[in-house]
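dumping this here before i forget
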Amino acid sequence: MQDRTPYQEKIIKRYYENRDDIMSDKLAMLVTDLYLAQGKKRQQLWKRIALALANLNVPQSQIEHLIATDNPALLAKYLEKK
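structure:
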């Protein structure tokens, strides 16, 4: 018995082919949310941002630096370079 249809296989394949673009778009939305967030919500957003950056193969030291500064502008500038 086949687990997935050919259509589903194509969707999964395209997702992984475009994963970097998807993660970049996701990070852009998270940066916007980060500018407006405060307190516990801001900490949760940084966790999601760290995970997205790790999926983009950003070095862990760079991720830790961005989180430690807690500066959305610095993160936005970093993402522009990528």
